[in-house]
Amino acid sequence: MSHQMSRRRLLTAAAVAGTAAMSPLLTACGGGGGAQRGGANTKEGMRAALPTYVERTAVKPEIAPAAGGKDVATHPGYLTYPAKPPVTVQGVPGKGGSYTAVTPLWGTNPPAGNSYFQAMTKALGLDLQVKPADGNTYNTIVPTMTAAKKLPDWILLPAWWNPNFATGQLAGSQLADLTPYLAGDKVKKYPNLAALPTGAWQTGVWNDKLHGIPGHASNYEVGATFYRRDVLEAKGITADQVKSADDLMRLGKELTDAKRGVWAFDDIWTYVYTFWGAPTKWKVEDGKLSHLYETQEFLEALDWHYRLAKSGCMHPDALAGDNAAANTRFYSGKTLIKGDGKGAWVLADHQSGTAANPQYRRGAFNVFTADGKGRPRLEMGPASSMISYLNANLKPAQIEELLAVANYLAAPYGSAEYTMVQFGVEGVHHTRENGVPVYTEDGKKFAQTGTYSGLATPAAVISAPGNDQLVKDVTDWEKANVHTLVKPPFWGMNISLPQAMATAEAAQPVADTIKDCSHGKKTVSEVRTVVDSWKSGQGKRLKEWMTSNILEKYGTGL
User: Fold this and answer.
1) Phi-psi region of 417 (alpha: psi -120 to 50; beta: other; left: phi over 0)
2) Average pLDDT by consecutive 10-residue portion of the chain (558 residues)?
3) Cα angle at 199 between 194 and 201, to 5 degrees?
4) Measuring CA to CA, which residue among 353, 351, 347 is closest to residue 334?
5) CA distance 276 to 245
């Protein structure tokens, strides 16, 4: 029922990708030729390419955002939806052009020419043929297009698949340079785009040129360790009682009742290992670069999760690697604690949970340190993982026409344009119930799929019309933890890795062994053996390359 719902549909795949969405944006480039050797954005080049930020709020939120550090802030919270959505775009943005667009879709593809598409064509003033492709195979579909140099006019390239797409290389050839249109104050021609966070625009900068339009922008992109708040509070347990890894383990033993088919934990490895002080990927101390796998904190975290897997407190299906049914287990109360991206904490989740149990309420543990001492820290993911790009073959007038459309699609929450994009035409695709837009049957089939959300969106907000408690729960958690958020090294730098280095960074044998260990199938000693082999070969070469080509030339980006 909100921007958050569309965001959840698109970010499901990011959560499945695990740490990929939390790591520096990496892209593999083929052999030979200048830019293909790999590199990153310079501070000066980045600064020159980025659009000027100009705040714009169409509707004042009931819960104001709270600032953390630079590029860190909680989301605004909305408890109501405006009865008369304000207009932010005067006139029709398009000039009658005809264009094609491709976005991934994890769901049922709406039929072409449906009433929602027709209404959007009229509202946008052009013929934009959006062709959703299967999100489950999107990472193989796009390379076929790029190999044939047959990209559509507008395409969404999720950042966690940058290695598959070789996005950095495409930015120098098949993707349009938007710097002349959006850099600095030029973006003020498109005020809704100017209101997107600066950190989100960084994800679309390659080789010191702005190429991408960020979607679902957020200054609070993190994962969390969730729990069934309704179940725990019924037992007299509150989140503030968990202040260390030992507390969490003890809680797991208290909650598990295998005879009744209840296990405390689903898989939480991806979302807790940094509590030991391990970096998400890289750390820099005294000017020296270290990889996650080189750190003692990583091994200590893995040892804890191995013991968790062996404790009998983790659901057998989670141990078997069945992630697809994790939400079903959580909703039904078969598991009570699970890790996920924060995009899971939305109205759609509440609706699914209460369908299984009317008392369902999701909560999240505050960030803590493994030993319960010191200041906890949580490394941020990129401010946008859904970036759209325009085709380099477009003429300047066509680029300007599509940027005007992007400005319409990025209209802020509660505006007339936002209402049109998200809910369609009132009386056709949605009606109002207690002042809240509610999809009709046609709206569910045509508008709710979020087709246009893959091209441009406003910055993320917290909204769950009709469920004030959910909005308060999420915003309260964000404010309680905003002080823990930090940027990891190379945040938003869009590093381009040569193919050999991308393979080394993926470290698939290591990743596979870690997964087995976190599920209790292999020991930490076995992980250490595989890691030592990686460190002496591919890992050593990767660190040397990152040190000489990125750290020494460009710094950490912080």
Assistant:
1) alpha
2) 40 38 39 45 89 91 91 93 94 96 88 92 95 90 93 94 84 94 98 95 93 93 95 95 96 96 96 95 94 96 97 96 93 96 92 96 96 94 93 97 98 96 95 92 88 92 92 96 93 85 92 96 96 95 93 86
3) 50
4) 353
5) 9
Between the alpha carbon of residue 88 and those of residues 93, 217, 417, the distances in Å are 11, 19, 7
Residue 526 identity: E
Whole-angstrom distance, CA of residue 197 vs CA of residue 213: 11
Kindly give, in sequence order, each residue whose CB lies less than 8 Å from that of residue 239, ignoring residues fewer than 6 positions away: 227, 229, 232, 363, 364, 365, 366
pLDDT value of residue 4:
40
Strands (E), 135-204: 154-158
Q: Which amino acid is at 496?
A: S
The answer to whether the beta carbons of residues 154 and 391 sit under 8 Å apart is yes
β-bridge mates for residue 24, sequence order: none
pTM of the predicted structure, to 2 decimals: 0.88
**Contact predicate 282/290, CB 8 Å:** yes
**For 256-387, where are the alpha helices, taking DSSP H only?**
269-272, 296-310, 316-319, 326-332, 347-356
Tokens, residue 2? 């909100």
DSSP state of 374: S
pLDDT recorded at residue 227: 97
